[in-house]
Specification:
Number of domains of chain B: 2
Helix content of chain B: over 70%
Structural class of chain A: alpha+beta
Number of helices of chain A: 7
Order of helices and strands of chain A: HHHHEHEEEHH
Largest interface: A-B, 42 and 32 residues
Strand order of the largest sheet of chain A: 2-1-3-4
Shape of chain B: rod-shaped
Largest sheet of chain B: none
Oligomer: heterodimer
Strand content of chain B: under 5%
Distance between the termini of chain B: 163 Å
Strand content of chain A: 5-15%
Distance between the termini of chain A: 77 Å
Helix content of chain A: 40-55%
Number of strands of chain B: 0
Radius of gyration of chain A: 27 Å
Chain lengths: 188, 205
C-alpha cells in the first residue's frame, strides 16, 4: 500500500486475509496497531537510535501486513492500515452464522472465503452456537435469516417423509410386510 | 222297628183281651154260683183291677222301658252312623272344595307369577335393547372421537415430524458429527441461497 494514494482508494484496495473474518479480529488488530504505535513511540523516545526494532506482533497482523504489502515499521503505513481497519469495522457488512458446535479456524476461513468471493470482500462473520441445529447452519444477514439446518431441510421434505410413512403404513396394513417377532430370551 | 213294636203292642192287647175273656167267664161262673147280683161295670172294673195289677203294670213298665231303651239305643246307633256318614261326606266335600279352591288359587298365583315373569322379561329385553342401542351410539361416538384424536395425534406428529427427527438425530449422533464434514453441505446450501444472501448484504452495506 502506498501512502500517497487517497484513503478511499486505500480502503477499497485493502485486502482482508481469510484468517481475519470477525469484527473482534478487526477490533483486536486496531488495538494491536494502537499498542504497536505506542510501543514504537516509547521506544523512539527511550532510545535515540535511528534503527527501529519492531516489537513482536501477532500472526494475523503480520499476515495482514504481508497481504497488503504494508511495512509496519513505517508510521504512515501503520496509520493507513489503522484507518482502513477502522473503515472496515464501521462499514463492513456483518453476517452472523450459527453452528451446532465450535468451528475450527480453518473451517471459518473457508466460510469467509466463500462469503468474500461471492458477496462482499469485506464481509465479517460472527459465530454463534446452537446445538439444536445438529447439521448445517443458520445465517443471519442484515435483514434476513437463512435457516440452512437439517431441521429446516427435513421440514421442506416432510411431505416426502409423510408419503413414505403412509406407503409403509399401507403396506403393513395389507399384510405384505409383517413385523418381525423377536426371539424369546435364551434362544438364539 | 216301630212295626215290630206295633205288632208287639197288638199282641199284648190281644193277650189282654183273651185274659179278660177268660177271667170274665170264670167270674161269670162264680157269680152264677153266688146269689149276689153284680153289675157288669163293676165286674169289669174288678177284672181289670185283677188283670192289671201292680205287678203287671210294673212288668209292662219294665218291658216298655227296655223297649224304649232298645229303640233309643238303636236310634242312637243310627244317628251315630248317620253322623259319621255325614261327617265323612262333609270331610270329603270340604277336602274337595279346599282342593279345588287351592288349585284355583295356585293357578291364579302361577298365572300372576308367569305374567310378572313375562313382564320382567319384556322389561329386561327392552332395557337390553335400549342399552344395546345406547352402546352402539356410544361406540360410534367413541370411534369417532378416537378417529378425531388419532387424526389430531397424527397431524401433530406430522407437523412436528421434522422436529422429532431432528431431535432424534441430534440426540443420537449429535456429538459425533464433525463440523468439518459438513463443510461441503454448508457451502452447497450457501451457494443455493447465494443470490438472496448477496442481495441482503448489498442492501445492508
Amino acid at each position: 500500500m502506498e501512502p500517497s494514494k487517497s484513503r478511499a482508494s486505500q480502503d477499497q484496495k485493502m485486502v482482508l486475509p481469510m484468517s481475519i473474518y470477525s469484527p473482534s479480529d478487526i477490533s483486536r488488530l486496531i488495538r494491536e496497531l494502537d499498542n504497536l504505535e505506542n510501543q514504537i513511540m516509547q521506544e523512539q523516545i527511550r532510545s535515540k537510535e535511528s534503527k527501529l526494532v519492531l516489537p513482536k506482533v501477532s500472526q494475523q497482523l503480520n499476515t495482514l501486513a504481508d497481504v497488503n504489502k504494508v511495512d509496519l515499521s513505517q508510521r504512515t503505513h501503520r496509520q493507513t492500515l489503522q484507518t482502513a481497519l477502522a473503515a472496515v469495522k464501521q462499514k463492513a457488512p456483518v453476517v452472523h452464522i450459527s453452528f451446532s458446535s465450535e468451528p475450527s479456524a480453518g473451517f471459518m476461513e473457508k466460510i469467509a472465503t466463500w462469503f468474500r468471493q461471492q458477496t462482499n470482500p469485506y464481509v465479517l462473520l460472527t459465530v454463534g452456537l446452537q446445538p439444536s441445529i445438529a447439521v448445517g447452519c443458520v445465517v443471519r444477514t442484515t435483514n434476513k435469516q437463512f435457516d440452512l439446518s437439517l431441521g429446516k431441510d427435513l421440514l421442506k421434505k416432510s411431505d416426502l417423509l409423510i408419503s413414505k410413512f403412509s406407503l409403509k403404513e399401507q403396506e403393513t396394513a395389507s399384510g405384505r410386510f409383517m413385523p418381525v417377532k423377536s426371539a424369546p430370551e435364551g434362544q438364539s | 222297628m216301630s212295626f215290630w213294636w206295633l205288632i208287639l203292642i197288638l199282641v199284648a192287647f190281644i193277650l189282654m183281651g183273651v185274659a179278660f175273656a177268660v177271667i170274665f167267664a170264670k167270674l161269670d161262673q162264680v157269680n152264677k154260683g153266688q146269689k149276689k147280683v153284680v153289675s157288669y161295670e163293676d165286674q169289669t172294673k174288678q177284672e181289670v183291677e185283677h188283670v192289671f195289677d201292680n205287678a203287671f203294670r210294673e212288668e209292662m213298665r219294665n218291658r216298655g222301658r227296655l223297649h224304649f231303651e232298645k229303640i233309643i239305643g238303636e236310634n242312637a246307633m243310627f244317628l251315630q252312623q248317620d253322623l259319621r256318614l255325614t261327617t265323612s261326606q262333609l270331610n270329603d266335600y270340604m277336602k274337595n272344595e279346599i282342593t279345588v279352591k287351592l288349585k284355583d288359587e295356585f293357578a291364579k298365583y302361577e298365572k300372576s307369577i308367569m305374567d310378572a315373569k313375562t313382564m320382567a322379561m319384556d322389561s329386561i329385553k327392552k332395557t337390553n335393547d335400549a342399552i344395546e342401542e345406547e352402546r352402539a351410539v356410544v361406540s360410534q361416538e367413541v370411534q369417532k372421537q378416537i378417529l378425531v384424536e388419532k387424526k389430531q395425534i397424527i397431524d401433530k406428529f406430522e407437523k412436528n415430524m421434522a422436529d422429532i427427527i431432528n431431535h432424534y438425530v441430534v440426540e443420537a449422533i449429535g456429538n459425533q458429527i464433525d463440523l468439518n464434514d459438513q463443510l461441503e453441505h454448508i457451502l452447497g446450501d450457501l451457494e443455493a441461497n447465494k443470490e438472496a444472501i448477496r442481495e441482503d448484504i448489498g442492501h445492508g452495506a
